Amino acid sequence: MTGRLERVEADGSLIVELPVLGLQNVAWLEAGGNGGITLQHGDQLLVARLHGGALIVALGRVGRYSPPAAELTIETASTLSLKCGASSIDLRADGKVMIRGEDVLVRAKGTQRIRAGTVAIN
């Protein structure tokens, strides 16, 4: 069944207008690929009633497929950090890039170039 989104509550639950049932509190199905979806008032949602209708879950927004972008730009004011366990990469607004890890491996099939005003090793 489909319904129309009325609003998103502060706790993240959705208020959806469903045929016959009227306004209902609906949970959102969290899936790996839907983190970038921004819901807006009036969006048409695909919903399922579970546990004899006790739980209503929005499975996703009904609309056109959008393929992934060929390029992605992430912009922040001061620092962008990627972290995984004891490893991290920081990109800073002052132009510094810091790569930290127990072992750092750089591989290249072609020529590997290091260009800088000064290169300090150890």
What does this molecule look like?
The chain starts with a strand and ends in a 22-residue tail after the last strand. The chain has a domain at 2-61. Helices cover 0% and strands 40% of the residues. It has strands at residues 2-8, 14-18, 22-28, 44-50, 55-61, 79-84, 87-92, 97-100. It has 122 residues and is an all-beta fold. A five-stranded mixed barrel has the order 1-2-3-5-4. Strands 6-7-8 form a three-stranded antiparallel β-sheet, with no helix packed on it. It is elongated, with a radius of gyration of 23 Å.
What's the alpha carbon Rg, rounded to whole Å? 23 Å
Unreliable segments of 5+ consecutive residues: none
How many strand segments?
8
N- to C-terminal separation? 64 Å
SSE arrangement, N to C: EEEEEEEE
**Beta-strand percentage range:** 35-45%
- Sketch the major β-sheet: 5 strands, mixed, barrel
Helix share, percent: under 10%
Briefly note the structural class of the backbone: mainly beta
Widest beta sheet: strand line-up: 1-2-3-5-4
| Mean pLDDT score | 90
Note the total helix count.
0
Global shape: elongated
